[in-house]
Amino acid sequence: MLETNCLLIDDDLDDQEFFAIGLKKVPMPINYSTAKNGLEALDLLSSSSDKPHFIFLDLNMPILSGKECLPQIRQLAGYDKVPIIIFSTSSYKVDIEDCQKLGATHFFTKVHSIKTLTETITQLISGEKLPFVLNATN
Amino acid sequence: MKDYKSTPTYQSEYRFQRMIEEVQDYAIILMDEDGTIQNWNKGAQKIKGYNEQEIIGKNFSLFYLPEDQKEGLPGKLINEAKLNGRATHEGWRVRKDGTTFWGFIVITALHDEQNNVIGFTKVTRDLTERKLAEEQKERDAKSIEMQNKRLEEFAYVTSHDLQEPIRKIRAFTDLAKAEIDDREKLEWYLGKIDSSAAKMVQLIKDVLAFSKLSHDHTQFIPVDLNAQLLNVLSEFEVLISEKQAVLEVSNLPVILGVPVQIHQLLSNLISNAIKFNRGIPHIYISCIPVFEIGDDLQQKSGYQINFRDNGIGFDQKYAQKAFEPFERLSSEFKGTGIGLALCKRISENHKGSIKVQSEPGQGSTFSVFFPELITE
């Protein structure tokens, strides 16, 4: 089975680790990489040949925020259709609407349950049809 | 034969004339068809400052601002009164001494039997106080609106940032539960829970300090910055010796301030200068007297206190962002993102300002401006 490339763009080391733990429990082979801010992510995406299949993007980051980063990723060659999942503490309507307009594929409010994280990522990778907001009632 | 002065007609006319002359709250004047002033009452003298001898024979356009005269406003009003019988207007007018008042005026045309305009009466009321009160009310409303907006933004980011450590505590608890028998992992998770809780406490403290600033009406007193700085440095003794930080401080002035706030300001700047440094921090604190041109174009004299460091620095394009609440320019060095916002608020509370010059790898210089201490 082919490996799925997942990139998490998040400055928070705890969240990076938490995400890794959640990914390990997904019953499919995954290749996980991280970038600690938007600038690093853009560098990585424009140089790397291993194109991620899913990009998870935090909103609240120093230097280049998620909302600033999102349209820039979409403009990179070959990235207009790659699923970008906003992965943030926020569950605010304005943030959700903004991100949808900016070209996000899904909005995923960070959860405290590893099980939910694992299940959601599994659903995403298996190609299930999911609503824009992945966990509307949190 | 009876004296004319004792006839009822004369008595009545006399009293009517006196009535107009004695009215103090309204300037009531009579003008000919060109707007030349023909008589004057007490109210006119009180409101406009001229006495009768000075003003009779002059044109009423004299009461108008130069720009209104240029625009031909007095003539327009006269024409309007000629055409419609009356004209009203509200606006700034000029007194004899050059000061202005907000006048409400009514010009009424006077006609002869054949309906020809033979002159005008002009009644002016000084509504300056009402005008100023209205303007103040408008400013207050705007200020409340702005404060509400700021509060809303603040509540938004605060609740967002306060949720983060809570979510982490719950996440690590979730992980700990799943691996309750693995003592090593459990300890690691507990450590994470503890540090998230500590971060939460720090955030709450910072948010409180920040929100207190906006409605703090503490008395301003002369504050010796040298003494305040020594005080702050003694609190950082451990950190300074740990990082072997070197400080050079020149003589600082006495300013008018709120000691607790000045302490917070110095403490935040010093702690940043020590914290955001990968090597041995060198911090130079100096003071230069300056003249600053404020937003209102008023020149203010005062002191600029410079805090120069050799720390990690940042791109100058983030200089503005650095002072916004909850903005962090680095994820390598953790903070709550409130420190510099607090410094900005404190500087503004002291009618001063704060700015920064920085370059990645070259360190930063924070400059705080304090207005000169004026002793009354």
Automatic annotation (TrEMBL), chain A:
Organism: Algoriphagus ratkowskyi
SUPFAM superfamilies per UniProt: CheY-like
Residues the record lists as 4-aspartylphosphate modifications: D58
Signal sequence region: none
GO biological process, one term: phosphorelay signal transduction system
Sequence ranges assigned to domain Response regulatory in this UniProt record: 5-125
Pfam families: Response_reg (PF00072)
Keyword Zinc: no
Phosphoprotein recorded as keyword: yes
Keywords: Phosphoprotein
InterPro entries found in the cross-reference section: CheY-like_superfamily (IPR011006), Sig_transdc_resp-reg_receiver (IPR001789), TCS_response_regulator (IPR052893)
Annotated protein name in UniProt: CheY-like chemotaxis protein
Automatic annotation (TrEMBL), chain B:
One GO MF term: phosphorelay sensor kinase activity
Pfam families in alphabetical order: HATPase_c (PF02518), HisKA (PF00512), PAS_9 (PF13426)
Alphabetical keyword list: Coiled coil, Kinase, Phosphoprotein, Transferase
Residue ranges constituting the Histidine kinase domain according to the UniProt record: 157-374
Keyword NADP among UniProt keywords: no
The EC number(s) this enzyme carries: 2.7.13.3
Ligase found in the keyword field: no
Domain of life: Bacteria
Coiled-coil stretches: 125-152
Domain PAC: 87-139
PROSITE patterns: HIS_KIN, PAC, PAS
Reactions the enzyme catalyzes: ATP + protein L-histidine = ADP + protein N-phospho-L-histidine
Positions of the PAS domain: 12-71
Alphabetized NCBIfam families for the sequence: sensory_box (TIGR00229)
Listed name of the protein: histidine kinase
Organism: Algoriphagus ratkowskyi
